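To: structure subgroup
Subject: Chain for Friday's discussion

All,

I'm putting the inputs and outputs inline so they're searchable in the archive.
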Amino acid sequence: MTSKKDIHQLIEDLIQKERNTEANPFLSTRIMAAIEKKNFSEVKQVSPVWKTAVVAFSLVAAVFSGVAAGSLYQTKNTTPDVVVMNDDRMENFVFYNEIGNE
């Protein structure tokens, strides 16, 4: 029975020791400095001229590909473009003819 109490007491002592352990105040500073150093080393500035050139090139490429895609579709239209209709039956032109005869 005393060995169980001793084991429990050792466990309690270990837990108390872990709770009371003080952290190194410089540890967080070192970690934050390492994170900031890593972030600054990865960021690369791109020249505004290159950004403008890439946007202009993308716009030209989009317009060119749109024109190219539109010109791929060509129909072989053999029917004439002019449609002949009898306008005399569609509209009443008799009135205009009568005015000329007066």
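Points worth raising on Friday:
The two ends are 137 Å apart (CA to CA).
Residues 2-72 form one domain.

D.
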